Amino acid sequence: MSYYFSATLPVGFDEAVARTTQALKDEGFGIITEIDVKETLKKKLDVDFRRYRILGACNPALAHQALEIEDKVGTMLPCNVVVQETGDGRVEVAAIDPLASMASIDNPKLHDVASGVREKLQKVIAALQH
Fold it and tell me: What is the largest CA-CA distance in the chain?
C-alpha cells in the first residue's frame, strides 16, 4: 500500500499552492499549519533546496470524530499535503493516505473515519488533475 496520493501539475509553484488550498477547502479542509521547507533549510542549515511546502490540512468534523475514538490519534494530525517543484517546470502535489498512516492502530471505528478522510483527499488530488 502506498502511503500517499499524488498528481503532477503543469503550473507554477504559487499557482499549485493556491489550487491545492482551494481544492482542500472544497472538501472541507482548512490549512492550520504551513511549513516552507526551502526557507527553513536555508535559515537553519544555510543550504539551498527546491521550493517545497508542507500544508497541514484539517477537516474539523473528521478530526473531532477521530479524536473521540482515539485520543492519541492527534500524533498523526493534521493530514500533510506536500507541494514541491519537480525541476522540470512542473509541480507535484502529494497527500498522505490516512489509511496507510493509521494502519498500526487496531481500531475499526478509526479506520472508518480514516476511510472518509482518504476519499476526500483522493478527490482533492483528482480535482487538481482537471
Answer: 45
